[in-house]
Design brief:
This protein is α/β, with parallel strands linked by helices. It contains 20 helices and 27 strands. A hairpin with an 8-residue loop joins strand 24 and strand 25. Helix 15 packs antiparallel against helix 16. The protein starts with a helix and ends with a helix.
Length: about 675
């Protein structure tokens, strides 16, 4: 028997004796109709392209085989039961990495439509997984085998390019400034702001939820612009008893779009009791950048920290409000909120996100806050270093003028505030390249002047924050003067008001920083430990209660001796000794460092608080402040030993020597 008759595949090939199908003209049609473009079910004209063809409404592979008289032939292998086409390639720019998506549409061989889906290019071109079933479920069928999947991918790619290259476009996943084709665009959900106003020059997709409300209207002009300026200047009258609140919000709105010129490494913390209208006040600043209200902020403290970080990264060069910091549900939940606050604030102050590694251990780009963040809260974050990265504004229930607030809310609802911001951005666009050079220098000059004149001394970071906000207000007032919204004289008066009010805000902030000072907190907790009877200090000589004010040192009256003397009992552990004044010296407190720190830390924990600084850091800071009276040289280190030797009850112990007045006077 002829060997060819034993192989049914070769027999089929030889019996056909047809020339290879002609290559079709360079037309493709859309993927949804690909089953009808030469190869639909029942078609007698298969559409061939390269080593593939569409036959009976599905992709097939053509494979050459040795057969016949000339030894040349081919067989057709089905790869799937559908056809599809890449309609366009989308580059999603999130400010960290550019991610490519392929928009694919198709049809099954029996005519069932395969809807338009966005397939990550990484998944489409991966040899692992099955992108078609992941996006279309059980509708399509792909024949098993790694080679079949690879050939199907190649067939789709080739078929999609029959009419030319696949169209490509970019989608931006953030707001703010972006240089596109040599021109600055301020991206927003409704398009982009350029020197020509609001244009459709860029597509922005901020995702679902309230982030989609970042949409600016067309720039205002003429009478509408004048009305919006008058509404905006009403911010200064929003809190008559605390005008620095409105001034700070005015400066924040002006400074936010300049993040491209100089990073915004600080945030505003607006706190007060419930009912103080802090959310309504923060919503006014947020409304300059979109359709926001006090019930539609872009973020709140119930969000995950990763989600909040990413959204703050998306809200580039804009105000970004995180609403309702209220750590009062339970101690564990409060600890989580404070940890989240620390992460967000440090992320902002350091302009760096939390580093991550992929499965291949390669570093991944980390999101960080690129917005001007405003937090509404009923409490403060813990730690002096965190507060130093903030401008803290406090509101009480009687501070807000309801009539002014209503006026500003109406201006926000009508779009006047966002229209004014659009006009500001239009004015900034042609000046941005120059501002990227001059604005940082202006901030530096204002900061140096602030340090020289002692205008913002609450924290070493305070002059920098002050300078940034004043510099932002200067630019906004220059814009108002340029477009006729304010005269030169009124602009100068407004800038002086901003400077004076911000100086007052930073002056009052010193109180919050003092309350969170680790040394002051240690001394306050130490006094509370003694007054609550959780520990005591004994007299160095008698090992009894100190002669003066024994109650302040942790002793309690327990009776009267036969001689008529009052007797006292110690409370809790002994953590140090009281040394009576002699000659010209003042009374001293000799503390056992480890024991004292342990008792103070445990006392704070029992009060639902935390005291997280390490003992060594605390003692060094106390020494730097001059609170440790006696030290000894340390031969092994180039630093003094802060615990000195003293004879106590016949034993030589190392103690830290402080002035007793630190505890007795409470100063």
């Amino acid at each position: 028997m002829d060997k060819d008759t034993k192989n049914p595949v070769l027999k089929l090939v030889n019996s056909a004796k047809k020339p290879p199908p002609k290559k079709p003209s360079n037309t493709g049609g859309n993927g949804g109709n690909s089953g009808n473009s030469g190869g639909g079910k029942g078609s007698t004209n298969p559409e061939r392209f390269g080593d593939y063809l569409i036959k009976n409404g599905a992709f097939h592979q053509i494979k050459a085989v040795r057969s016949g008289e000339d030894g040349n032939g081919s067989v057709e292998f089905p790869l799937c039961d559908f056809t599809c086409k890449i309609m366009e390639e989308i580059i999603a720019d999130d400010g960290l990495t550019d991610t490519a998506f392929l928009r694919v549409e198709g049809k099954r061989s029996d005519g069932v439509a395969l809807p338009l889906v966005d397939v990550p290019a990484k998944a489409f071109y991966s040899s692992q997984g099955n992108w078609a079933n992941e996006h279309w479920g059980t509708l399509p069928f792909i024949y098993p085998g790694a080679a079949k999947k690879d050939n199907l991918r190649a067939a789709i790619h080739q078929y999609s390019r029959l009419s030319g290259d696949v169209p490509r476009r970019s989608i931006y996943k953030y707001t703010g400034w972006k240089c596109i084709n040599g021109h600055w665009h301020y991206l927003t959900g409704s398009g982009s702001l350029t020197v020509d106003g609001l244009v459709n020059g860029a597509e922005v997709d901020l995702g679902g939820g309230h982030m989609s409300r970042y949409q600016l209207t067309a720039p205002l002009a003429g009478e509408a612009l004048s009305q919006a300026v008058a509404d905006t200047l009403a911010l200064f009258a929003l809190c008559p008893s605390k005008p620095y609140v409105g001034a700070a919000l005015f400066a924040a709105v002006a400074r936010a779009p300049l993040g491209e010129c100089h990073p915004t490494d600080f945030a505003i913390w607006l706190h007060g009791l419930t009912g103080s209208r802090k959310s309504a006040v923060a919503a006014i600043a947020q409304a300059f950048f979109g359709n926001f209200t006090a019930r539609s902020f872009p973020a709140n403290w119930s969000d995950s920290v990763n989600d909040c970080e990413m959204k703050s990264h998306q809200a580039k060069d804009a105000v970004f409000v995180v609403d309702d910091f209220k750590p009062s549900i339970s101690q564990s939940e409060a600890a989580k909120l404070h940890a989240m606050a620390e992460r967000l604030i440090r992320n902002t102050g350091n302009q760096a996100g939390r580093g991550r590694r992929g499965a291949d251990m390669q570093a991944k780009a980390a999101p960080y806050n690129r917005s001007l963040m405003i937090v509404t809260a009923e409490d403060l974050p813990r730690g002096q270093s965190l507060l130093g990265r903030l401008l803290i504004l406090e509101l009480s229930r009687s501070d807000v003028d309801n009539a002014v607030l209503t006026r500003l809310q109406q201006a926000a609802e009508s779009g006047r505030l966002s229209g004014l911001m659009s006009a500001y951005l239009q004015w900034l666009a042609p000046r941005l390249d120059e501002l990227k050079k001059t604005f940082p220098k202006n901030v530096e000059a204002l900061r140096n002047a602030s340090i020289r004149d002692g205008l913002a001394t609450s924290h070493p970071r305070a002059p920098e924050i002050y300078a940034n906000m004043v510099a932002g207000a200067e630019q906004f007032l220059a814009f108002l003067e340029a477009v006729g919204g304010a005269s030169s004289e009124s602009g100068n008066d407004c800038l002086l008001a901003v400077e004076a009010n911000l100086q007052q805000a930073f002056s009052e902030q010193g109180t919050y920083l003092s309350e969170q000072d680790e040394i002051e907190r240690f001394l306050q907790l130490l006094r509370a430990v003694f007054s609550s009877g959780n520990a005591h200090v004994a007299c160095r000589l008698k090992q009894r209660e100190p002669t003066l004010r024994p109650y302040a040192w942790g002793w309690r009256l327990d009776g009267v001796s036969p001689m008529g003397d009052k007797t006292h009992s110690p409370m809790g552990d002994c953590i140090g000794w009281y040394c009576d004044p002699t000659g010209n010296t003042h009374a001293e407190l000799w503390l056992q460092q480890e024991t004292a720190f342990k008792v103070v830390q445990q006392f704070a924990r029992n009060q639902g608080d935390t005291f997280l600084i390490s003992p060594a850091s605390l003692w060094r800071r106390m020494h730097e402040r001059g609170l440790i009276l006696k030290t000894e040289p340390n031969a092994s280190r180039n630093q003094p030993r802060l615990a000195v030797k003293r004879m106590i009850a016949g034993r030589e112990l190392r103690v830290m020597v402080l002035s007793a007045e630190l505890v007795e006077s409470g100063e």
